[in-house]
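Quick one: structure for this chain?
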Amino acid sequence: MGATRLTRNRTTLAHQVRYALRYPERVPAHARRVTRDAWLRLRYGHDHIAYYRAVMASDTARGAESAVGHNPSRDRWTQIGRMQFDYLVGHGLKPEHRMLEIGCGNLRAGRLFIDHLESGHYYGIDISPDILIAAQDTLVREGLQDRLPHLTLTDDLTFAFLPDAHFDVVHAHSVFSHSPPHLIEECFAHVGRILAPGGFFDFTFDRTEGREHQVLHEDFYYRTETLVELAATHGLSARFMDDWEALPHRQSRMRVTAMPDPASDPGSGP
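Got it. Here's what it folds into:
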């Protein structure tokens, strides 16, 4: 595993002092995030979906690109989208596949998936109505209306409105990095139902080998083994994607598939 992906505990005073000394120009922006966090926590309490929806509304007001990444430059937005697309195509995404993208945002990668897949085979969901409106703008700008993608607002990760065994590929880029443990478990508890036989679920996450922690209720850091074990409790097999580590992205990546059903194995009987 590449050391570049490992994250130290960003909640420690020592880290915060070092960061402020190294990047003094970023201190005002961080102070604004602290103030926003305090206000939104007071307003929404422990409802993380409502909390993060408000975060997305705030960020989208500054620009759709900045709402789907800390670096708001258009070039970086394009680069990250292309990286996601190239990786998935290189790892088995075919035009005939049906794909669900969790946290589709303003279609940073989705615009490429939509163009690659057969018409109607892309389904994007997001908790933010503001970013889905920006996604519609992306469709128009890219001339992808005739691909008939589905773009749907959601309130949770139960996928209750989606059919069983339907999606060959489920993808969540930079979603678990903003999700507390109970939302990740909710996703693991239900994603197996919507995966087609032989399908897989790829997700990125902020990785630490130290204490798991969160920063301002927006950024969450997990140990690899925590996610592997959590997936297993819901009948899923998760593996670390080592080759992703060579790419220019700060998050790590895992792939989840359904564990074989022992009852379906003729040799598994007594």
